[in-house]
């Protein structure tokens, strides 16, 4: 993958999403022409952070914000601190407001349908873990553009403390009747303390992997456009489920991490 023009950005905010996950808000330089489609990714690097061969360390991260946020001059990357094996993630988690971060891109064909294209009957998103990042950017885009299309998000994570964007996604579901939010915990005490809300469009803290719950959540094919993102096994199982109930290739989009 050939590198594109490097764009210098400035880290202007850091949001702690979970104990291991942070969202980094990057301000673009004045007059920047950078653009992307919801779902695409960029290559990120930190000036002066080099590998053993003296080359910049670059890592791919999905843009977690909406292209509409560019109107305010920023984009966001949501990054999980991997631990001993996370050479770049450890370094960026040490960054502070005001630090420089370079990006180049965008890259990728895992993209949301454009606003001026025919819209599906609903958008259905299925994510696991940090695979929620590009889908969050897509969801923000749909809502910011007021597309008036129902949205369903089925999101699986390990434990209750691993719910990325929890407040934001709950706010969407509480405010928008046609925003369906279902979350599932693969570990811990799923369903022992579900969120108590009169909203029928919200079911959180269910027990089990999100892939195991799909037959209950989606009983038959409809006119949905489906976007899947997460680890390879989860993506493969989810893709197979939707193909098995009759969704055609052009209605199922997937990205594995």
UniProtKB/TrEMBL annotation:
Highest taxon of source: Bacteria
Q: Which SUPFAM superfamilies match?
A: Ferredoxin reductase-like, C-terminal NADP-linked domain (SSF52343), Riboflavin synthase domain-like (SSF63380)
Residue ranges occupied by any FAD-binding FR-type domain in the UniProt entry: 4-113
Q: Name one GO molecular function term.
A: oxidoreductase activity
PANTHER family on file: NADH OXIDOREDUCTASE HCR (PTHR47354), PROTEIN RFBI (PTHR47354:SF5)
Name of this chain's protein = Oxidoreductase
- Classification lineage: Bacteria, Pseudomonadati, Nitrospirota, Nitrospiria, Nitrospirales
């Amino acid at each position: 993958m050939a590198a594109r023009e490097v764009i210098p950005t400035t880290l202007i905010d850091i949001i702690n999403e979970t104990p291991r996950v942070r969202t980094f808000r990057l301000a673009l330089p004045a007059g920047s022409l950078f653009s992307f489609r919801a779902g695409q990714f960029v290559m990120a690097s930190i000036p002066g952070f080099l590998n053993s061969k003296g080359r910049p360390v670059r890592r791919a991260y999905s843009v977690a914000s909406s292209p509409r946020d560019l109107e305010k001059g920023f984009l966001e990357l949501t990054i999980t601190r991997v631990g001993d094996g996370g050479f770049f993630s450890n370094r960026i988690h040490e960054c502070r407001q005001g630090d420089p971060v370079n990006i180049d891109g965008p890259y990728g064909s895992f993209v949301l349908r454009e606003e001026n294209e025919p819209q599906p009957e609903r958008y259905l998103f299925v994510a696991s873990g940090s695979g929620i990042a590009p889908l969050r950017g897509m969801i923000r885009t749909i809502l910011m553009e007021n597309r008036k299309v129902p949205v369903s998000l089925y999101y699986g994570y390990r434990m209750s403390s691993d719910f990325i964007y929890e407040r934001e996604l709950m706010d969407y579901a509480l405010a928008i009747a046609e925003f369906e939010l279902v979350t599932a915990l693969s570990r811990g005490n799923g369903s022992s303390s579900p969120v108590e809300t009169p909203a029928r469009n919200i079911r959180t803290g269910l027990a089990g992997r999100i892939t195991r719950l799909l037959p209950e959540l989606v009983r038959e094919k409809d006119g949905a456009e489906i976007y899947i993102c997460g680890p390879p096994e989860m993506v493969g199982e989810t893709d197979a489920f939707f193909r098995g109930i009759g969704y055609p290739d052009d209605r199922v989009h997937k990205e594995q991490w």
